[in-house]
Design brief:
seven-stranded mixed sheet; Jelly Rolls; alpha+beta; elongated; 266 residues
Length: 266
């Protein structure tokens, strides 16, 4: 039946061609669907394949927001505030201020020595050779001379006769006041005795005398005297104005440094 077979084949070819044409027409129609073919607000998240939308498919503002929300995690619940810690102790500033005497280990030897708003005032002494007064410190009492590391005082003084002997001087009394080491600004290698100005005298960098208040012998370096009498026990440290010289002598002591501890007066 060759005729029937040929006819059957023609029918199959016709059906196949029709299917191809129909398929091509559908693909073309799908590719040409636009926004006018879609009802507003009809598309949903489920209509979009996951992971197929990119920043370029969205408005710039939406893309930026999406990135921001993706990076920013959900804020955790705010924790309860912790217990307040104890207040720390105030650190040592290395400085003490004294506004009255006796105080802080300092005491005046007589009423001619007193604290004013500007410092410790000495005098005035009409005759600075016959009268005077001292400010003494007992904070080093019982310790050895070798324990003194720094000793500095700052003061000014005045006389009517420009007598440099009237400058305030410092003594360290030893062994129950049986001995003393004296520092005199006017006997230093470079004397600092100008009147009416605040001077700083560094005892541990200067020269001193041992048991020689009158200055009969030359000074010796502080380190030498300290080494020679290292084990002698301190009974007081005093800064004195007077009992030396100067008409109408007066002085004003601003501060003292003893082993790194500064005391300011007034």
């Amino acid at each position: 039946m060759p005729g029937k077979t040929a006819r059957f084949m023609q029918v199959l070819v016709a059906v196949a061609v029709g299917a191809l044409v129909a398929g091509g027409g559908f693909a073309t129609a799908a590719a040409l669907i636009g926004s006018d073919d879609v009802q507003n607000n009809s598309l949903r998240s489920r209509d979009v394949m996951d992971g197929t939308l990119r920043c370029k498919d969205l408005r710039e503002q939406l893309c930026t927001l999406a990135k921001s929300e993706g990076q920013k995690g959900d804020p955790g619940a705010k924790g309860d505030p912790g217990a307040k810690g104890d207040k720390g102790d105030k650190g040592d500033s290395g400085e003490t201020r004294i506004t009255s005497l006796p105080s802080g280990g300092f005491e005046a030897t007589n009423s001619t020595v007193s604290v004013t708003p500007d410092g410790v005032k000495f005098g005035p002494y009409a005759d600075g050779g016959a009268a005077g007064g001292s400010l003494c410190y007992d904070g080093l009492n019982g310790r050895s001379l070798s324990d003194v590391s720094t000793l500095i005082y700052r003061a000014s003084y005045n006389t009517n006769d420009d007598n440099t002997v009237g400058v305030p001087y410092l003594r360290i009394f030893l062994e129950g006041d049986a001995h003393d080491v004296i520092f005199s600004p006017n006997t230093q290698p470079v004397p600092a005795t100008a009147e009416g100005v605040v001077q700083e005298w560094v005892v541990n960098d200067g020269t001193v005398r041992y048991d020689d208040d009158a200055g009969n012998d030359p000074d010796s370096p502080w380190d030498d005297v300290k080494a020679a009498h290292a084990d002698e026990v301190i009974s007081s440290v005093c800064i004195t104005t007077g009992f030396s010289g100067g008409d109408n002598l007066s002085a004003l002591l601003g501060s003292v440094d003893i082993n790194g501890q500064r005391t300011v007066f007034g």
